[in-house]
Amino acid sequence: KYGNPTPEIVFDAKNLSGKPIEKIERKIMDLNMIFKDKGASETMDQNQIVYEVDCYFPVENDTEGGLFFGITRIKPGKVGDEYFMTKGHFHSNRDRGEFYWGLEGEGQLLLMDEKRRARTEVIKKGSVHYIPGYIAHRVVNTGDTELSFGACWPSDAGHDYASIEEKGFSIRIVQKNGEQHIIKE
Ligand code: F6R
Ligand code: ZN
Predict the structure, then answer these.
(1) Distance 89 CA to ligand 2 centre (A)
(2) Number of domains in the chain
């Protein structure tokens, strides 16, 4: 009646640990399509890890009314002059929102609506970000240390990566003369 007890799961900026944790790794070879400088990504070590996600899925995928929990860690680094970042996605069920919160390091959360209007929020230790439905989201590590953040999203949100792989975001974050710059596509 009261559901299953939460297994002992703990998180910090480095990890989500406990029992049923699923781990996802994204390497350069998985991300060649998202960076602007294709030539630069092709010459890099294809096995280099760009980011990792530890997830806790207490219910089946697509369960209405359930929630998922994850910790993402993005390595510091660049492809050409563009900082390491997540693939980014809209939720397949477009109206599903999400929370992100910063744990360690510093970066930018890119938010873009379906009309491709984009804005950014600084993500760092202690920052809280509500991502409304219909908004694509991507995180960029602009620092020189690992950027770690938490996420909580509906179990029936789903991920639409294809729209972003095809059209990208309308803004990118690059480093010029040692400083971060937002460039419009
Ligand atoms: C879930 C969510 C995050 C991301 C994670 C990796 O809806 O937004 O848990 O899945 O930060 O980013 P993506 O999924 O864009 O590769
Ligand atoms: Zn999401």
Answers:
(1) 6
(2) 1
CA distances from 88 to 12, 19, 127, 145, 153 (A): 23, 27, 19, 20, 14
Given a cut of 70, the residues of the chain with pLDDT beneath it are 1-3
Domain boundaries, position 62: 10-184
The closest-lying atom of ligand 1 relative to the alpha carbon of residue 157 is 7
pTM: 0.96
Does residue 43 sit within a domain?
Answer: yes
35-61 confidence digits (pLDDT tens): 999 999 999 999 999 999 999 999 999
Give a yes or no: residue 116 inside a domain.
yes
Q: Give the distance from CA 156 to its chain's centroid.
A: 18
Residue with the smallest CA separation from ligand 1 atom 6 is 86
Sign of dihedral through CA atoms 30, 171, 91, 73? positive
